[in-house]
Structures are given as structure tokens and as C-alpha cells.
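User: My instructor asked us to take a sequence, write out its structure as C-alpha cells, and then describe one feature of it. I'm not sure where to start. Here is the sequence I was given:
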Amino acid sequence: MDARNAASSSSSPSSSSKRWEYQVFLSFRGEDTRKGFTGHAALSGDGIRAFLDDNELKRAEFIKTQLEQAIDGSMISIIVFSERYADSSWCLDELVKIMECRERLGQQVIPLFYNVDASDVRNQKGSFEQAFEKHEKGKHEKEKVERWKKALTQAANLCGKDCAFV
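Assistant: Let's start with the prediction itself. The C-alpha cells for your sequence are:
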């Protein structure tokens, strides 16, 4: 199914009546994927309107607010889980917002596992475990860290795609 027809097939009544600003929101750790996987313009072909932070954000405005509005306004969110995704509190905050929009708006969420195992994301093992050890020792509230872990588990439990690139 292509992104243009995805809204009409959603089972959520709120998603079928919502007017989407973007067809796709792409959540990714730029340092891991921007120069390769997410740097390609594949999503902009075929008339798909995708929100990409390097193209859409206005630096003078509040970035967090813009990201949240873009997530709210997207029919589909694609989460590219990479080795250092969980190192970023920005990525984890985006993930929580995406999972909230999935529940509230019926937004479709597609996880991609870019050189990481889905079970590492689901169970916060490997690099994800290391990232959370740092978050738990850092300045983040325990409740926020628990929301991040829950969102990771929920997203990794969705049907996703493994992407392995050398």
C-alpha cells in the first residue's frame, strides 16, 4: 500500500477524517544515518510529502515545537532505529510523541532496524542498554526514562523491517 492510500485504510475513525500535512515523518539519529540511508531522496519521489528535519525546520523557531507539530501532522511515521538512536534524548522524545499519535490519531508507525537487532531495541540490550545506563545516571527524570523504554518496546513489537548495510 502506498502512503497516499494509507489514511483511508486505517481502522481509527479519527485518522480517516484528519487532514494530514505530511504523508511521512522520518525519525532517525542523524549521526548514524544522514550521510547514507536517510540522506537519499527516495521518499520525496512519487509525490510523497515527507518531513525531513534538515529541510523543514526553521532554525529561528522552536525546534521541539516544530517536530511535535510535524509528527502530529503526519499520516505515517517511520522510525529508523540505529546503533546510537537511544543516545539521543531528542530521538527518544520524538519516539514517545510518535507512539502517542499512534494511539490518539491512529497514525501508522513503521519501525526499521538499521544495523541493530529488533530484540536489542525491544529489551534495551547492547547499545540501547548502554544508552539507558547513561540516561539513568544523568539529569533525566526516572518517569521520563521509563516512558522512553516503554515506547521503544512498543515500537519494536510492531511489524518492522531489518536493514543491514555495510
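For the description part of your assignment, you could build on this observation: Residues 1-13 have pLDDT under 50 and may be disordered. Try explaining in your own words what that tells you about the chain.
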